[in-house]
Specification:
Elements: H1 2-44, H2 53-59, E1 60-65, E2 69-71, E3 74-76, E4 79-83, E5 87-88, H3 94-101
Antiparallel strand pairs: 1-4, 2-3, 4-5
Length: 102
């Protein structure tokens, strides 16, 4: 009975580990697929001369414009850009870069 209980406990642990590992593999494969799709779009538009709405729509999933705020007497408005396939990328503005360096 004791050996059977230990065996069943070990089986449950192994099944949980397999599920976790499979989830990691699925996530990796999705990320790789998204990256490959994004890279294909980038290759398609190497050397473009003009940015058109069609090109923007291929790269950008959505743009979120936040309410304006007053910071040090200046109007500041945060804008988040969410790209297709890669999600949101945080770009530092020139002001943020200067503040971090100081």
């Amino acid at each position: 009975m004791k050996l059977s209980a230990e065996y069943e406990a070990e089986q449950r642990e192994l099944e949980e580990k397999v599920k976790a590992d499979q989830q990691e593999v699925d996530t990796y494969e999705q990320n790789k697929s998204d990256f490959d799709s994004f890279a294909a779009i980038i290759r398609k538009y190497v050397g473009i001369k003009e940015l058109t709405p069609a090109i923007v729509n291929e790269f950008i999933k959505k743009i979120i414009v936040h309410a304006p705020e007053k910071v040090d007497g200046k109007r500041v408005q945060k804008v988040d850009i969410v790209f297709n396939f890669v999600g949101e990328i945080n770009f530092l503005s020139a002001t943020q870069t200067k503040q971090q360096g100081a």
